[in-house]
Design goal:
By secondary structure, the chain is α/β, with parallel strands linked by helices. The chain is built from ten helices and six strands. Strands 2-1-3-4-5-6 form a six-stranded parallel sheet, with helices on both faces. The longest helix is centred in the middle third of the chain and has 24 residues.
Length: 272
């Protein structure tokens, strides 16, 4: 169901890879709600996915950009404002990557060159995106910037590896840059801490299938899907949340506030 929540609004959506991506689902929902946007991803990610199909479906354009490159980001912002015909109202940062996870390196035996690459892609890129938008005065007043994160930034999930550190840094950037963006430009910045979601990136984490089942049993409302995360993101892009900023917003069916659930306890009792 559409409510025209984003009618007339312009945006940039980072990270749509395939139909399992939260960014992909968000782009579809933004389109349904009347928003106009450009899609962007790194050239290597574009070759892996099907972003051009999404662009055709949502009647938009794709601007290739490496989010770790200031030159690429400056070009992206300039082209986006030109294509969309004005300042940007919303941005979704849905980017994350750990070479150590991909290569199976344990957290106690990290390759630090790989760690720096993952940190640059997953976290520092968020600062670079906002710094570019800020310096170019490219955001509209009461605009909204959202990044996707995960609760491993606050709690230990052993197999999440150095991505946990990256997400903690990402959330700190959201608060710190969000203060200045709010004070100076009336732009809000938030992160969404999403349930474990079977995206291409999520499924790359060791033991993911077992953990997603555990999280579902722990959450009184069950895991939040990629589609539901897209709905929540749209609400944060809309004018209905104009005074929500500097927040890390848990979208996880209640998982983050549950110590233990009946379903999990029953499983252990049954095993005994």
């Amino acid at each position: 169901m559409s409510y025209n929540l984003l009618k007339g609004k312009r945006g940039i959506i980072f990270g749509a890879l395939d139909e399992n991506s939260i960014a992909w689902k968000t782009a579809e929902r933004v389109f349904e709600e009347g928003g106009n946007f450009v899609l962007t991803n790194a050239p290597v990610a574009m070759r892996m996915g099907a972003i051009n199909e999404l662009a055709e479906k949502t009647n938009t354009q794709v601007i290739p950009a490496d989010a770790t490159s200031l030159e690429d980001l400056e070009n992206l912002v300039e082209k986006a404002t030109e294509i969309l015909g004005g300042k940007i109202d919303f941005v979704l940062h849905s980017i994350g990557m750990s070479v150590n996870v991909r290569k199976g390196r344990h957290y106690t035996d990290l390759n630090y060159d790989w760690s720096q690459k993952g940190w640059d892609v997953s976290a520092l890129s968020f600062h670079k995106v906002m710094q570019t938008l800020y310096k170019k005065d490219a955001m509209s007043e009461w605009g909204s910037i959202v990044a996707l994160t995960y609760m491993a930034a606050q709690r230990v999930f052993p197999d999440y590896n150095d991505m946990a550190d990256n997400k903690a840094y990402l959330e700190s950037i959201a608060r710190s840059f969000g203060y200045f963006f709010g004070r100076d430009k009336k732009v809000r910045v938030n992160t969404i801490s999403q349930s474990p979601t079977p995206t291409t990136a999520g499924k790359g984490v060791k033991g993911f299938d077992g953990f997603i089942e555990y999280a579902d049993k722990m959450s009184p409302l069950g895991n939040a899907s990629a589609q539901e995360c897209a709905d929540y993101t749209v609400s944060l892009f809309s004018d209905l949340t104009k005074k929500v900023t500097l927040q890390n917003l848990y979208h996880d069916g209640g998982f983050s506030n549950v110590g233990v659930s009946d379903l999990v306890m029953e499983k252990f009792i049954d095993e005994e």
